Amino acid sequence: MDLAAIRERILATPLVSRLPESMRQRFVMVLLWLSDTREVCREETLFEQGETDTDSGCLILEGMVRIKTESAANKTIDAPDILGEVQLFTPNRQRTATVEVVVGGCVLMFSWHELATTAKESFTDAEFADLKRIITESAWTREENLKQKIKEM
Questions:
Q1: Range of the domain at 44
Q2: pTM as predicted
Q3: Considering its fold, how many domains does the chain have in total?
Q4: Which residues, in sequence order, are bridge partners of residue 75?
Q5: 13-59, pLDDT tens digit by residue?
Q6: What is the CATH number of the domain that holds 93?
Q7: Which residues pair with 58 in a beta bridge?
Q8: Could you tell me if 45 and 98 are in contact, meaning their C-beta atoms sit under 8 angstroms apart?
Q9: Cα–chain-centroid distance for residue 36?
Q10: Torsion angle defined by CA atoms of residues 119, 111, 25 and 108, in that order, rounded to the nearest 10 degrees
Q11: CB burial class (10 A; 0-12, 13-18, 19+) of residue 68?
Q12: CA distances for 149 relative to 42, 53, 68, 107, angstroms
């Protein structure tokens, strides 16, 4: 996947598309600077439910993943999307789900801590506050969707 295609996939993620236009390109540059691109294979586990002491995030560029929890039905997520933000807001920063690759493809792996540190330097205080708000809303929306699946069971 070439750099232009990666940039377009990042811009198409729900989280990034919610950023104000003035921030999107800078966010893409920050994310590209901090991320490692890697190919993933079917059945590979990206995150394990219950993991702690990790701050890794993942942006799915190509492929599909399955979100598995003990208390809800499995959910699949197609590329592009950013994962791993929910654990930032849980007690002990614990992973709330296992993320397993269903359709292989390409991902960007990054550190949420490094992203926050670099974003704080790259954005104004108001922009950084917007970024934190959007990441928080994304996490709670994803968590609420998982809770809704539990209620439907």
A1: 3-152
A2: 0.83
A3: 1
A4: 67
A5: 998 999 999 899 999 999 999 999 999 999 999 999 888 867 889 99
A6: 2.60.120.10
A7: 83, 109
A8: yes
A9: 14
A10: 180
A11: middle
A12: 24, 27, 12, 26
